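On clarity, I found the account of how folds are encoded harder to follow than it need be. Since the whole study asks how a given chain folds, the encoding of that fold should be made plain. For illustration, here is how one protein appears when written out as sequence plus structure tokens:

:::
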Amino acid sequence: MIIGIPREIKSNEARVAMTPEGVKAARIHGHEVIVETSAGALSGFPDSDYEIAGAKILGSADEVWGEAEMVVKVKEPLPEEFDRLREGLVLFTYLHLAAARELTEELMKRHVTAVSYETIELEDGSLPLLIPMSEVAGRLSVQVGTWALEAPNGGRGVLLSGVSGVAPGRVLVLGAGTAGKNAIRIAMGMGARVVVIDIDPVKLRYLDDIYHGRLTTLIGNAANIEQELEQADMVIGAVLLAGAKAPRLIKRGHLERMKKGAVIVDVSIDQGGIAETSKPTTHADPVYVVDGVVHYCVANMPGAVPVTSTAALTNATLPYILELADLAPLEAARRSPALAKGFNTYDGALTCEGVADAFSLPLGRLPL
């Protein structure tokens, strides 16, 4: 199979979908790999590294998309890439279609086999290709949130750690999954007072045990969310429903009762966001203010640390890339129920239940 690696064009997206080591592995499996020039430069991989690994370097995205049988990316195609989509193409990337109706319809109309990283699901319910980026985003959320809390950036001027004689800042984490747990780890390490809200008492019990009661765990309900929003200096939105839109836990009316200059970091923005006032932003212009509350809603947060993120992501994706290339998509799906759940569109049909529910579209089935 010919595997294509185009350069990412989303604003300030510096990750690349395959490392030179991944290219070498694909070549050993007998596949050809074509890479757009400079695709890996911002992740620390010059074209020469890919050539040494056995890749062919092409000068334009059109060439890569046109020659590839499977395009492997990091982020979803943007509108300027839609014309490169074609029947029979296999697309393997983060798609987050439940928040992207236009892209969903384009993939269906153009009969693309679209396999999404974030909906591949193991038997235990874990999401192996979402975990590494959720770890990065969770840890990064507190880092960017502390920046946004600084007064010159619009925040209320609170130091999360506090100092002698001054109380530390208060961080509310909504969601105790991978991103939430990693946000808690960093916030606790900085000395903040941390409250986590989740609907799963097992997750809360685990966090209470490992932190020996040094953080507050609350069950997810409207009363607890409203009460804690009023006290928080920073809110980390880290709720994930696999393949579906994120629940809107923060209503517009809540903002009026929050502290002026408080910060919402919406890690869930790829899936639509957990606040009614959330809208995607970019690394170039990451924040905006609504009712005195600073919103940080960058839709590709891990792209800010591409060296770390690319290594973490490609460690996870490579086995699935090779599986799709070695067996061809349908046979790979037949052999791997986890991978089959990653198929979002196939032969013009929508095959992901969460996306179908989000847009009230008919749900198709893979011919397995």
The radius of gyration is 21 Å. The CA atoms of residues 254 and 274 lie 12 Å apart. The chain has a mean pLDDT of 96.
